[in-house]
């Protein structure tokens, strides 16, 4: 229990540190949201100054941070200059779309990676293993951006998939089945882009972990006792190899909000990516901080979850923790 | 078989998960109650032109989401474009002719001394929620625009001669606007001031909540306007759907009430390239703000759409030097460079060395116009055609530099380097926005042009807001390549660029006294044209301003890009203009030629 409390406290301090640093870096970056108004000949400097004062940009940095922290503790993440509205609902609506995309892609990637990795490990050094190794290595060196652009070219050339967005404009007029088809068609390319981007890393980790365990004496003994090979692989070897994979799974959860930002921007997915990019360029300070903090919460939460899973799955950690 | 069961269960689970998600996104459509159409007293405005057919849904991409539907605080171009289709003004500038025409008012009269404008509203007009429009709405509108606590972005336009315009109601249809000084802009002033519904906004205004109202997520029932379309649905991150305003006050020549389109959908597509892809694949109907490269790419493979070049717009790109008087804050290096920058012959020499035609050819692929003054050829009424279009001349540039005391030395690698009168090499940097590929290319071309004069130039692409911070706040820069796009064809839209006390007098802003005699002369001419009635007299004064700017070169004008747009062939009445909104300025007249396309949308 003390182990879990300690990990949770670490997570809270980490979040505090990240919020402070993000606030500091964002606030110290040259330029602010209202600078572009200065270039509008029809808006006077007095009007710009009044707007700055209205959003309290003229206050000292520590005061602004303290006010923001106080609001954040109460569940409000500040106010967007551009949207003239609270940040939390802005982020949440888009985070929902991001999660919808990334949860689907992550689940799919893990569902593919586990059998592929185990299969590859079982044929370690042979042709199927080498083919998988080469394919995953090739996918690893292709940047996400190129993958996404390649898929977009496919969409434009063939017309099989829409080139962006979440739903068609006439979505409301479709039947339930057509709605499902429309959503699936819109999701297909971003999901494929994300799966292709994450799959190689997962496959290689699963392969390495399982291959390492397969040499263990207890598995050789189990094989000698006549346990069927597939059962041996999936029930015993995979379980024994789970330790690093659980940490990796926690990391996968951590990247649910931030891992798809680039793909979202390229494929016009209405998630956090386009909003954060726009906010960073426009210096919409609190939206940026809110977005980073949300991603951090997922990262910290994901790691925490992985720690809990490890604690549950690995008796060595439990005994080490209780010995302390 | 045992293996199949869990996988089938998993498949069913995935299917139901997807169905649940799909139904989550199928948000209910909220609409206004159907209007009562009969109103015999309506004084509608009949538009000439091609008669169209009703129905259809037009899908237009927007680079970013509209931040607000509140015309008082809208500052970004997406919000302004959307609001333009939802609101109406008293007098409107026709984007094709660039002249004013009656809109919500049927007539206006200006007193002989130019101080009093009497406007008469059309009778029987209604807001999009069916509520009648009268003079009280107009009074309320200008009261809130002028209220300092509201922070309306257009407030400064209503301050004439240092005093706010006074508005008085004569009767339910008549209003008098009183000016402290005659105003040369005359009735153009009223363009862009959306008339607001007092019945919806007065209470929030009194409670001090007006600035927070009318976010895009506002329920349609709490929003009303006088434009051709009204709010129907907003899905954050995805789209804003507008529907036909059944109370709109314009008809076609046959008396059919406009607009023709049933729905106008703004789809949020965050990047220029993504917009091209979606237009190409038929997911959007119109595309605007195209770069020359994308325009050519789309033009090469036309599939059911037509690309149109409306000619040079009002954007002018220019190079300017740091002429700020920084006093002790100035570094020794900048102070040394400012000696050259302040010498008009140095600026003229730089200007003479620039190959503007090459900029148009290489940056805009020929779809633009070279500039020698601030007014682009697209601004037909105000451009001074007498300003000479001097071709590039390195000889003239060298002569000017020699006259200013500069000389050349041969450096070890064989190139000659320009030396200032103190014998030091002439080097400076050009700041430019890293997010604007066209301007970065322009800066590189300038670097190459000036190298041939022996001038060493470093191009420094900076993120746009960091660049603005350097130019407007810290003033730590040598020179900068920027562009400005005039809001209107009238010179007053750029008043603060040319007045020496203006905040956008970029090379030396907010001066307490004009730093140079020519800036004092520009101040005098601009002030004079501001209060001079009549186009011809104002044009003479503004022509002189253009001449001074072309002679003294505080900004070295470079080029102006064409307005490049595209539309599906099935869209009729599509007549792009060089003033914003380029393609949607006559959205009420746009219609789909093909009735099958109408039905399918």
* Helix amount of chain B: 25-40%
Q: Which fold does the CATH topology of the domain at 93-282 in chain A refer to?
A: MetI-like fold
Instruction: Kindly report the oligomeric state of this protein.
Output: heterodimer
What is the residue-mean pLDDT of chain A, rounded to a whole number?
Answer: 84
What coarse outline of chain B follows from CA principal-axis ratios? Answer: globular
Q: How far from one another are the termini of chain B?
A: 47 Å
Explain the overall architecture.
- The complex is a heterodimer of chains A (324) and B (601).
- With 324 residues, chain A is mostly helical.
- Chain A has a domain at 93-282: MetI-like (MetI-like fold, Orthogonal Bundle).
- Chain A is built from 15 helices and two strands.
- Chain A has a two-stranded antiparallel sheet.
- In chain A, helix 1 (2-28) packs antiparallel against helix 14 and helix 6 (127-141) crosses helix 8 (176-214).
- The radius of gyration of chain A is 24 Å and the shape is globular.
- The model of chain A has no long low-confidence stretch (mean pLDDT 84).
- Chain B is α+β, with helices and mostly antiparallel strands and 601 residues long.
- Chain B folds into two domains: 12-304 and 569-599, D-Maltodextrin-Binding Protein, domain 2; 315-561, Dipeptide-binding Protein, Domain 3 (Dipeptide-binding Protein, domain 3, Roll).
- In chain B, helix 8 (344-353) runs antiparallel to helix 10 (394-403), helix 9 runs antiparallel to helix 11 (437-451) and helix 14 packs antiparallel against helix 15 (535-552).
- At the A-B interface, helix 2, helix 3, helix 5, helix 7 and helix 8 of A face helix 1, strand 14, helix 5, helix 12 and helix 13 of B.
